[in-house]
Specification:
Pfam families: MT0933_antitox. By secondary structure, the protein is mostly helical. 66% of the residues lie in helices and 0% in strands. The chain has three helices and no strands.
């Protein structure tokens, strides 16, 4: 079993906490880089949420 499979199995059923953790980590990176890479950080957060769950807003239109 690969490391990614182990991570997925540990996070299964905890999508809300996973999403919060991903958001918190992204906010930390944005703060440390003074927002210089915020576009890349946002893309990374979206990909992690897709991979590990925690999206929470799938199927809903983006808010303006």
């Amino acid at each position: 079993m690969s490391m990614l499979d182990k991570l997925k199995s540990m996070l299964k059923g905890h999508e809300e906490q996973t999403g919060k953790g991903i958001d918190k980590a992204g906010d930390y990176v944005d703060k440390r880089t003074q927002g210089k890479y915020s576009g890349q950080v946002d893309k990374g957060q979206d990909r992690l949420k897709d991979e590990f769950g925690g999206g929470g807003d799938k199927g809903q239109p983006p808010q303006s």
